[in-house]
Amino acid sequence: MSQIAPRILVADDQKDILEALRLLLKGEGYEVDTATSPRGVLSALDKRDFDALLIDMNYTRDTTSGAEGLDLLARLQTIDAPPPVVVMTAWASIDGAVEAMRRGARDFIEKPWDNRRLLATLRTQVELGRALRRSQQLERENRALRKEGFPELIAESPAMQPVLKLMERIGPSDANVLILGEHGTGKEVVARWLHAASGRAERPLVAVNLGAVPDGLFESELFGHVKGAFTDAKVDRLGRFQLAEGGTLFLDEIANLPLPQQAKLLRVLETGEFERVGSSKTQRVNVRIVSATNADIHAETTAGRFRQDLLFRLNTVEIRLPPLRDRREDIPLFASHFGRRYAARYRKAITGFAPDAMQALLGHPWPGNVRELDHTVERAVLMAEQSLVRARDLGLGAGADGVTPLDQMSLEDVERVLIQKALARAGGNVSDAAKALGLSRSALYRRLKHYGL
Fold this sequence. Notes:
The chain is α/β, with parallel strands linked by helices. The chain has helices spanning 15-27, 38-47, 67-76, 94-102, 115-136, 138-141, 161-170, 187-197, 218-223, 240-243, 259-271, 297-302, 308-314, 331-345, 355-363, 369-383, 391-394, 411-425, 430-437, 441-450, and strands at residues 7-11, 31-35, 52-56, 85-89, 107-110, 177-180, 205-209, 224-225, 237-238, 248-252, 273-275, 282-284, 288-293, 317-320, 352-353, 388-389. The longest helix is centred in the N-terminal third of the chain and has 22 residues, at 115-136.
């Protein structure tokens, strides 16, 4: 939960029950207000906001039918942005629980309640309610981060605040920056933001995925070549360094660069000089280097697979991006952002996400991080048959054991799962994962992009 203590409104006409719930919730860090009637609930909502309501279905006027509770639920739905409601009932009626859910309750608890289930239910609903409210306020909350010419940063979670402060400090400088983080965490977005914040913003930002560059073409790709330098060199070609002159060169997947190529890159970073393939003429270049990797580059250096002197040149400042599972508060914001984008692209009248869809998004582990979420929302927008995306549209469902059986997956889904498992076994090292899968490194990168990983 967030640092602000969640506030719960508990409603029941029995004082001993109110006191028992107040003590239980207070011990778990909640702030608790109480009410003894439906009127008291509505009066409390007029005075302050609550993260969730825990309300009884029966009061003194009618102690068995649940009619008062159902009427209260209906009235709560007329309030602008009502908090999540969990109902309590002493009558073990499935029909009554279904009717309560139909009228807007998010969940129900039977009396006498089980403390663990009650606390787990409330915790889930508090998180979901807060997430939905943040999603509805996406434009307002990100206004300060949307600067002219800057890529949009969605980063409201506590885990991202130190990252944003560091970016603000180093953006205007010429310092080389190393961005660390798992696949799909937004490393390229950060690189583009840093470029836009720098004095080089009017000059080019040139990106190159070093993991996808075949070893034999490395020098040509980065430094360029002259006509006739090798069989396919039909014309002169400028390399990425020259294309980025005066601007920023973004070297993605830097840890996958083989040692021989690391030495060539280091020389350019140390001297600012290089020669195009097939030429003896020395070229000088002035670029800022922003690099990124999903690998544990410090472990790679300790193991002798990455040059320490090159690492020193790359990470004047190091930025570490948290995975999406550690910034759950941003999931609804990303989902809304992607939802609007794809609704416009595919001309779908999608207005948002139903509560069951948002809960599914919040509960998914997102091994592919923001990129996987983007891919999932795009698919959901295409599949949605109503104005709200539902959980079934997301394609995140699993069997009873939490895992979808392989024989129920499409061939593409099976390949996606195998790639995820190979990456996990390789600790995120793309080269090792590619070898285990019998693929070239560039072929695996194409699949990673295709599957949104």
